[in-house]
Design brief:
The chain is an alpha+beta fold and about 140 residues long. It has one domain (about 5-130): 2,3-Dihydroxybiphenyl 1,2-Dioxygenase, domain 1. The protein contains two helices and eight strands. It has helices spanning about 15-25, 90-100; strands at about 5-10, 30-35, 50-55, 60-65, 80-85, 105-110, 115-120, 125-130. An eight-stranded mixed β-sheet has the order 2-3-4-1-5-8-7-6, covered by helices on one side. Strand 6 and strand 7 (about 115-120) form a beta hairpin. The chain is globular, with a radius of gyration of 15 Å.
Length: about 140
């Protein structure tokens, strides 16, 4: 799989409804994963969306999630640009360049879902997410 660049939207508790709406607009396949799916069952955010992906017949990919506890949801500033794929060297190179001179919110490291992930804001104020998955074989 090559690297992929797409928008990632953040929501204040209504990610499921928003992503289902976008599916009615664009069509395609929608996959939604809750915080409860990844070890937060029994918490107030258990049914909230930790990660959602809509892949459309036109080749669009739209990702979104509810803002996690401890992070601020600010309408108007509720997007990131997501870089994802399985080429570790390529994606780490992008991470190094994007985070240089900016700020790192989540260090690029192994996460509970098994991928390497990080969040940064570049020196121009653009928020980025980088997710490195295992190569598919």
């Amino acid at each position: 799989m090559g690297s992929q660049l797409n928008p990632y939207l953040s929501f204040g508790g209504d990610a499921r409804q928003a992503m289902e709406f976008y599916k009615t607009v664009f069509g395609g396949t929608l996959a939604l994963h809750t915080f409860g799916d990844f070890g937060r069952s029994g918490t107030p955010e258990a049914d909230k969306i930790m990660h959602g992906t809509l892949e459309t017949p036109s080749g669009f990919t739209l990702m979104g999630a509810d803002t996690p506890p401890g992070m601020e949801h600010t309408p108007g500033n509720n997007f990131s640009v997501s870089l994802s794929g399985d080429d570790d060297t390529e994606l780490r190179g992008y991470w190094e360049k994007l985070s240089a001179g900016g700020s790192v919110a989540v260090p690029l490291e192994k996460q509970m879902w098994g991928d390497v992930f990080g969040m940064c804001t570049d020196k121009f104020g653009v928020p980025w997410m980088v997710n490195i998955g295992e190569p598919r074989g």
